[in-house]
Specification:
It is a single chain. With 280 residues, this protein is an alpha/beta fold. The chain has one domain: Rossmann fold, CATH 3.40.50.720. It is 47% helix and 14% strand. Helix 4 packs parallel to helix 5 and helix 5 runs parallel beside helix 6. 37% of the residues are buried.
């Protein structure tokens, strides 16, 4: 085990993955489990959770729907009661619509609201509920981490996904704001806030509209190619093991176009924050 991997692995002992029954979340749950971490997987699909728990010995599961905002405090409280030493939270649940704002018949107001709730409102509320716990552990000397998945579309929005790109831009902003607030807290030196920035990855997220978006781009050979999920996960962990300046873990861990977006932002708008001496 190389020294970079040791730093990352030694930081994470018990990790809660919110949105772990499919796609990137499930892949992360499997990878962290294979590393010997205590993994708690959550999702709406109880059958999938049972299947994963049977396949992965020691995996803990919790069923809850983050779009049901009223139940979030109860679910978070219950999780923290059962796992008081939880040191890492990774929020990656999401949903995606594709529609044209000039054609109201393609999407309802309720669908737009539901997408914003799942992709932005619920994650912000989860940050609010979990951050005090992570900060308290950090205050007592435990290294803690809050991960949240945004998207390369947060940096380079595309017309196919109006609400999704806007919500992920909001995630990008809230992570930087949380990092700023953490920087003002003298007890926050052991806590890290990390934005995960995937490229267009081959998951089931866009299953309902993939063919339509390919058609809008002209033909399959002209469409933006997706990165295989396994390739993304491997590159994510490789990147995570390479710390930023004076950091055990990077502030953003981007892959492919996600990494390009992060580096471009850091070398442009990020310089403005550096001049203001504000942590982002």
């Amino acid at each position: 085990m190389n020294s970079m991997r040791f730093k990352m692995s030694s930081r994470i002992n018990t990790i809660l993955i919110i949105g772990a029954t499919a796609g990137i979340g499930e892949a992360f749950a499997r990878r962290f489990h294979s590393m010997g971490k205590k993994v708690i997987s959550t999702g709406r699909n109880q059958d999938k959770l049972k299947e994963m728990a049977k396949e992965l010995p020691g995996l803990e599961t919790r069923q809850f729907d983050i779009s049901d905002l009223a139940t979030l405090p109860t679910n978070v409280d219950g999780t923290l009661k059962d796992f008081p030493s939880l040191d890492t939270v990774l929020i990656t649940a999401g949903t995606q619509l594709s529609y044209n704002l000039f054609d109201p018949s393609l999407v309802t107001s309720e669908e737009i609201n539901a997408e914003i709730t799942m992709n932005l409102t619920a994650p912000i509320l989860l940050i609010r509920l979990f951050s005090p716990h992570l900060l308290q552990l950090a205050r007592n000397g435990t290294k803690t981490t809050l991960f949240m998945t945004s998207s390369s579309l947060a940096y380079v929005p595309l017309s196919f996904y109006p609400t999704y790109a806007a919500a992920k831009a909001g995630v990008r902003a809230i992570m930087k704001i949380l990092r700023q607030q953490l920087g003002f807290n003298p007890n926050g030196k052991n806590m890290r806030v990390v934005e995960i920035v995937p490229p267009y990855t081959d998951t089931g997220l866009d299953k309902a509209h993939r063919e339509a978006t390919i058609a809008m781009q002209g033909a399959p050979d002209k469409a933006f190619p997706s990165m295989p999920l396994g390739e993304f996960v491997t590159k994510f962990f490789d990147s995570l093991e390479q710390p930023g300046p004076d950091e055990e873990i990077k502030k953003e861990t981007g892959v492919g176009s996600g990494e390009i977006g992060v580096n471009t932002w850091r070398n442009s708008f990020g310089k403005m924050y550096e001049q203001m001496d504000i942590a982002t």
